[in-house]
Design goal:
about 45% helix; about 425 residues; binds alpha-D-galactopyranose; globular; 13 helices; 6-stranded mixed sheet; alpha+beta
Length: about 425
């Protein structure tokens, strides 16, 4: 990172804005590939979840932020119903026709499933969808637990909706045709129906609703949400990528979801009013936990405790502006403790961590100035999220890289991120 950023006023800490550069890169590539100028670029960010993991599909609470890593789609409308796509980062092209949408089979590249999945669901929900030429490119690391796939489905949905509304003057019409709640749900269905992951609603929602320097406190049952100012004082969010990804991630994810549902079904015999783990207090759970098979018991306990941790973490951040600087430091420390406890639960009870994620959190927690460290996202590889004091940021990067490499032979990647705005459309005239 730039040395200057370390010495700026803590309230202004951050890194140079990455989005305009990425948008003009996508535009340039479109010109090279299709020989003319795109009309717009639809841009959707990845996310990092600060706390509240595997709670979204249990109707619980989450607390993610959008990060300044984006999936950008530079596009131009076509009038013949054809969709011509070039995925720059995997150097692959694919073409289909909106009248005869492809189905998922071995010959359709995995990345294209998101695109024809979105097109298909928009069409079946009665939305007008037109053909496009598009170049897809991004810097959200793929398969690293930072929601590259939600960024792809959200930017795709915005691309089709914007292309169909044709001109900038009808921008508001296209946005009002479908609200963010519906859009998030549609993108979630793409994962369920075209990708085979029974994910929750967190990733799509934060990619749409992210706000600069604010975290999103989201109730995944009602979808009510609050943006909470993320005043971390002199601390940064540092994301460490294990660079490992387990093959079984999708099937284990679906298994966890099924285990939670099984737990609810059993507990309903004693607690008939519950419909998800979100409805159970820890006290009630303890009265009946012995009725559950051992594994189900561990899974349910983790989710119930994690929901409480999210509420505590949000409360800690919300009251910070009322505090003296010593109290402020203490509440950040509490926030970090909750993050650490979240990781421990994911490792021991929910069993979605892995040795590389545990190693990264162990290394981080041993560095003075690191307030909290936990895995983020679905797990089984991917990334950790760390809250790191600016004074130790360089030490943190050096130590994490050296220690992780020493034990695994892998060079980890470390991303120091700004907390960013959610999905946006940039019109040609703004480039
Ligand atoms: C993935 C899913 C989300 C959520 C997280 C775990 O990112 O897409 O819906 O369940 O895992 O918190």
């Amino acid at each position: 990172m730039k040395r200057d950023a370390l010495h700026e006023d803590p309230s202004n800490i951050g890194f140079p804005e990455n989005r305009p550069k990425r948008v003009s890169f996508a535009t340039q590539k479109f010109k090279e590939i299709f020989g003319n100028t795109p009309t717009f670029v639809a841009s959707a960010p990845g996310r990092v979840n600060l706390i509240g993991e595997h709670t979204d599909y249990n109707d619980g609470y989450v607390f993610p932020v959008a990060i300044d890593k984006y999936l950008n789609i530079a596009a131009r409308k076509r009038s013949d119903g054809r969709v011509r796509l070039h995925a720059l980062d995997v150097n692959d092209s694919y073409e289909f026709c909106l009248d005869t949408l492809p189905s998922i089979h071995q010959d359709t590249p995995a990345w294209s499933h998101y695109l024809f999945g979105v097109a298909s669901l928009l069409q079946t929900s009665g939305k007008k969808v037109s053909g496009i030429d598009a170049v897809i490119t991004g810097d959200v690391p793929i398969g690293a637990g930072l929601s590259s796939s939600a960024a792809l489905s959200v930017s795709t949905a915005l691309t089709f909706l914007t292309a169909s509304s044709a001109s900038r003057t009808s921008e508001s019409a296209s946005q009002s045709e479908i609200n963010n709640k519906e859009l998030a749900a549609l993108c979630q269905r793409v994962e369920h129906e075209f990708v085979g992951v029974n994910c929750g609603i967190m990733d799509q929602t934060i990619s749409l609703l992210g706000r600069e320097n604010q975290a999103l406190f989201l109730d995944c049952r009602s979808l009510e949400h609050k943006h909470v100012p993320l005043n971390l004082a002199a601390h940064y969010i540092a994301i460490c990528n294990t660079k490992v990804k387990r093959e079984l991630a999708a099937s284990e994810y679906n298994k966890r979801r099924a285990e939670c549902e099984r737990g609810v079904a059993i507990l309903q015999q004693w607690l008939p009013d519950i419909s998800s783990l979100r409805d159970i207090t820890l006290t009630d759970f303890k009265k009946h936990e012995e009725e559950l098979p051992a594994l189900t018991q561990k899974r349910c306990r983790y989710v119930i405790e994690e929901n409480t941790r999210v509420l505590d973490a949000v409360a800690v951040l919300k009251t910070r502006h009322l505090q003296t600087s010593e109290e402020t430091e203490e509440s950040l420390i509490q926030f970090g403790r909750l993050m650490n406890a979240s990781h421990n639960g994911l490792r021991d009870d929910y069993e979605v961590s892995c040795s590389e994620l545990d190693l990264l959190t162990d290394i981080a927690r041993n560095i003075t100035g690191v307030i909290g460290s936990r895995m983020t996202g679905a797990g089984f590889g991917g990334c950790t999220v760390n809250i790191v004091h600016r004074d130790v940021l360089e030490t943190f990067q050096t130590l994490v890289k050296a220690e992780y490499h020493k034990h695994t032979g892998i060079e980890p990647e470390i991303y120091l991120c700004n907390v960013s705005d959610g999905a946006q459309v940039f019109w040609n005239s703004d480039f």
